[in-house]
Prior knowledge:
Elements: E1 3-4, H1 18-24, E2 25-26, H2 29-39, H3 54-63, E3 70-76, E4 82-87, E5 93-106, E6 112-121, E7 125-127, H4 136-139, E8 142-145, H5 148-161, E9 170-174, H6 184-195, E10 207-211, H7 215-224, E11 229-233, H8 239-245, H9 254-263, E12 272-278, H10 286-295, E13 301-307, H11 321-333, E14 337-340, H12 354-361
Parallel strand pairs: 6-9, 9-10, 10-11, 11-12, 12-13, 13-14
Antiparallel strand pairs: 1-2, 3-4, 4-5, 5-6, 7-8
The chain binds S-adenosyl-L-homocysteine and iron/sulfur cluster (SF4).
Amino acid sequence: MNSISQSFKSKNIYSYTLDELMGLLEPSFRAKQIYHWLYHQYETDFGNMKNLPKNLREALANTFEITHLEIIKCQQSQDGSKKYLFKTRDQHTFEAVLLKMRDKKIRQDGSIQEGEKWTICLSSQIGCRVGCLFCYTGKGGFIRHLESGEIVEQVVQIKRDNYISPHKRMNIVYMGMGEPLDNLDNVSMAIRILSELEGLSISTRRQTISTSGIAPKIEELGRMNLGVQLAISLHAVDDELRSKLIPMNRAYNIEKVLSQVRAFPVDSRKRVMFEYLMIKGVNDDLKSAKKLLQLLDGIKSKVNLILFNPHEGSEFERPNLDDVRKFADFLIHKGLLCTIRESKGLDISAACGQLREKISKENVSYETF
Ligand code: SAH
Ligand code: SF4
């Protein structure tokens, strides 16, 4: 007998882990079939789930909803990256980016196999309440958290839109709009759902949470022991400057953040990433590089230097590439792993909140502020 028991946390089917769905369905193996339709076939209509009995298909359609997001704009960069603007059912907009990277592998016979590596940069909130001085998302204020299903659906929609095979390996970074640790319940649920082996099967080790440093939430995330990677948006090496750039530093200063990072469970083959946004004349000098080296002493870390991406109304400027290289060379020479973030998708303004900015300038009616 097929039936759905009567306790629902949400109508959004993407908000359910496999176990939760199994708990709702009798017989429970139906949940796996539904998962395959949703995450391997990217199906959006219960009516098309042909291996389910008709009465179950009808019951599912009466109980759950599949599509909650609409792609309202997609811009493709010359490097193959794509930026998506999504609209929610309550008419808010937010972004996600598909980043395409070249991947080279050396075969046993010494020949080189070239492939593609996909990373999806997800949003966790509509807007953000941290309010960093340099960030366009922060300037727009906070509207609401994204539900776990809305976070998961970004991946499904982007994979479907690009015909990416369900079995293709992907990386996820929570570096779009919003502060993921300010929405930890929904983000951690999304991480679990994305990693389900019967579903998208994106290992937690391939998922990276980037945070501006909510120290107690770093601790909470650590206690969850999900196996996710951690990235810290550091951006400054002294509290005075960091508090100017990231007002939350007044509550959780550099030392408080770093002490939580030291306690965080890091996979033995992985490192904590420190993101350092380089702003011309503000934090791009060698004195800062030296201090950064001292701060990270004893932490298994890698540094990712990001070039400030200017947006209208921002008081900051992009640093000189020469200064960025000197900064990076200094750290590398001292033995630190350091990369300069490729300006992927710069021609589609692929930094926090900037596609949304453009659309709002075009005076499109769905924009809410
Ligand atoms: N809230 C989280 C994750 C989203 S922001 C965090 O702050 O870590 C993701 C990254 O985008 C951050 O490292 C942030 O520094 C970067 N970013 C924000 N505004 C930017 C800009 N104008 N130019 C370049 N990077 C920017
Ligand atoms: Fe929020 Fe991150 Fe932007 Fe700061 S940089 S305002 S934390 S999204």
